[in-house]
Specification:
This protein has 156 residues and is mainly alpha-helical. The chain is built from five helices and no strands.
Length: 156
Amino acid sequence: MEAVADEDWHSVEEDEDEPEPVEAETLGYHGLYRAAFALTVWIDRLFDERAELQNEPAAVKLATHAALASAKLAAALSDDDVDEIGMTIAYLKRALKAITSAMEAAAQLVSDKFISAAQHAVLLRRLFQVRDGIISLMGEYRGEWRRRFGSEGFRS
């Protein structure tokens, strides 16, 4: 249990040994997707160390929604058809909703004392990194939408 609790926060940007793609980012190299995937791995390790969490509804909600956010990000980031900006924004909205649900579950877990304050702090940093990345990317795509179609064709 202590290994996950004591883990220092390592952002994916700290992995300087990985080569950066020369062309447009592929899904595997997209920092936001890597952060979401790292979040799911961290949660899996937490479950490995604390088997009782596998039957705790808030923990299941956390794991499920983190995985769902990762899947929605994969769908949004793998679309190389620039004409489908609306669909990409829709996938990003779904990913944001899933991360928000995961944040609610994390709050419930610390409130019910299933995870320590240190584990919660690491979990929140990871969740907020993904959430903030989604919001930033949504802003970029919405800006492109407005540039192409004007503000009349945009509904949030």
